[in-house]
Design brief:
By secondary structure, the protein is an alpha+beta fold. The protein has 5 helices and 4 strands, in the order ααββαββαα. The chain has a two-stranded antiparallel sheet. A two-stranded antiparallel ribbon has the order 3-4. A hairpin with a 5-residue loop joins strand 3 and strand 4. Helix 3 packs antiparallel against helix 4 and helix 3 runs parallel beside helix 5.
């Protein structure tokens, strides 16, 4: 049997002879050690897996706690993105302007100027940016996996937290328009 047909057949709901529901729709563990997840949006607070196998939401209180935690994780993610941009602006060590002649209209020569901003690779600011980038990537994948539970409450927490984080942190973001930039 090919890998594709195994993959497709494993994604289909399976009927158990002693039960009257499918595992794909129910999300229950039937002793196989593998929990099937719903692939449509749902608003449930029972048997909702959250990132790790031992972390399962089973009560309304646990769902409320998970909602708050996910909300703040999404806010943290937005704040981290802005913080990295601010640190990058502060750590830029050299700015060079390169001018080069380009042909203009009617045989004239125009000077085109490009701004180059550099940073040293073996420096503390670059090391800090690298560590923060790793944290940002991990948090973004956590948020993606939380959203992929298709639990409506958790999806709302991700979206609302990201929106609130953007509201609180992005106003500090300075927008600099470079008039020599051609891709606006």
């Amino acid at each position: 049997m090919s890998h594709d047909s195994q993959m497709n057949s494993s994604m289909l709901p399976t009927m158990h002879p002693d039960h009257h529901h499918t595992t794909a729709a129910s999300g229950h563990d039937h002793g196989s050690g593998m929990m099937m997840m719903a692939m449509t949006f749902h608003f449930s607070y029972e048997n909702v897996p959250l990132l790790f196998s031992g972390l399962t939401i089973n009560t309304p209180g646990e769902m409320a706690g998970a909602f708050v935690a996910v909300f703040f994780l999404a806010m943290f993610y937005e704040g981290l993105k802005i913080a990295r941009e601010c640190l990058l602006r502060k750590s830029q060590v050299s700015i060079r302007y390169n001018s080069m002649p380009v042909p203009g209209p009617n045989g004239t020569i125009l000077m085109e100027t490009h701004k180059t901003v550099g940073q040293q690779m073996l420096s503390f600011p670059h090391l800090l940016q690298t560590v923060l980038h790793i944290i940002q990537v991990v948090v973004s994948y956590f948020l993606m996996l939380i959203f992929m539970t298709y639990n409506g409450y958790l999806c709302i927490a991700v979206a609302a937290g990201a929106g609130m984080g953007y509201f609180f942190f992005s106003w500090k973001k300075a927008v600099v328009v470079d008039i020599t930039e051609h891709c606006h």
